[in-house]
Amino acid sequence: MSLNRHLTKGRVLARTAGDHAADMFAPITLIGRGLRHHADWAKGRWQATPKDRRGPTVFLTAAVLLGIFLLPHGPLLAAAALLASAAWVGRAPKAPPGPPEPDAADLKLTALYAALTPYLAAPDDLSPLYGNENGYRTAFGSWEFDAAGRLTELELAYPAYFTDTEPGARARIEQVVQGKAGRAREYRFDWDEESNRLRVSALAPLATDIAAQRFVAAPGEIVLGFTDEAGSRRMIPVSQGGTTAQQPPVIWRTGPRSSEPHLLALGATGHGTSTLIRSIALQALPFADLVLIDGAGTGEHACLVNRPGVHTVETSLHGTLAALEWAAQETARRLTALNAARHAGTTPPEDVTRPLWLLLDHPTELSELAHAEGRPDPQDLLETPLRHGRAARVTVVIADDIEARDRITPTLRATTRARVVLGPTTPEEGQAALGAPLDIVPAAHAPAGRGYARIGNAAPVRLQVPATVDPLDDEAPAQLRDAVIALLPHRDTRTEAAAPSVTPADTARDRASEPAAELPGLTDPTVRPGVELGKEHSAVRPRPVW
Question: DSSP labels for 324-388?
């Protein structure tokens, strides 16, 4: 007999023995399955019984068992009934396990792959990366999800014929990815055109609880706001939430050696353009003089009226034209004095080396009014400060609505090489405002002061402007208002209950020693309040502007 026949006969005998054993032990298996069901039922009932009822339940069960034990043939009949019920319950086969729960990551990646297929597939592609027959693993290289099941990192490949150099084609892919991954977050898209790969990263939200304060910066450096660690190589200490933390700032360097001496900020209404103007003004006041134009006429900058170092705060067209005409003449005077000092080899006078800042909030509103009245456009008066301001230590900051971008003069757009855009924007608006395409897709809803900044030729970075509220706004939080008041050159009795105590003799002596800060024809009488402001003596003194 060959070896194969022995093996075949052995397998038959083993199968037969197994079948006989299964038949012989079938009743025991049946009863055991039923007893297990009974035990599970009893355990479930015990766990469902409240703790205060478990004692009586145990007592009643013990009484029943004792009664069965005392009955004639009671234990035998109870055992027979238990085995019969176990055999009845155990006759049902074991329920098959249910289908496993679908993986949330698998479902989301499959949906994203299906959404990208119409844009990244071609009918004549012989080996498509994206198609109905393929799965997402053929195109997606790596991915990560956070604890909440949201997509945080994704790397995908796209075919070589995809037009990744066209902004419109990129915008469609970015919109699809953001729609499937969640529009409540910002995403950075890193297009690797050489390798035909796209890396998507969900960005953590920036801190919004940083109030106005003295920032650690050199003279001439302005902290526009704060960004993430990828957008800045510098860290500064800030007071945040009652503690000191290190945050990466967005620094704008001004002065005669700056290649970006002027700034243009555009934003949607209510997203922080006026807040940015106030923040810059408070940082520039210790080392510069200010001229502020409030084109919207909302009075949000009234807290700077009559402050040392602030020449004027104008809201009317007449006052604005007078202030800007003086600024143009002052720029020319500074240039003449600086050139004369340089040729003579002497030190320039102090009044031409102290920086002068022109802050304009919504100047296009006044431009429309000037055109209607046939008067000069205030933006045209900025041509001299914009073109020669760097050499004359004159810095111009303009903030306006993003919808008014087309009404801004070409000279202003060409000379403002520091750009800021605040609020939700489309890719086209972001590129037009910053002068470069954004590699970050904004979230659907952005807090006030959230936007992007681009200094010179650098890449755009995320930006969160410090919370610099109007201290005269009663609806603003008191803590934020106090932070702004602490940065002003002197206290304002209109916003604080406790005014500094001074004697009439001291007041008369201070008024006699201080030069006048107001001049006829420059100050709008509608802006000046008809009350006397309580002030503390300050080392910074206003100077006449004529």
Answer: HHHHHHHHHHHHHHHHHHHHHT-PPPHHHHS-EEEEEESHHHHHHHHHHHT---TTGGGHHHHHH
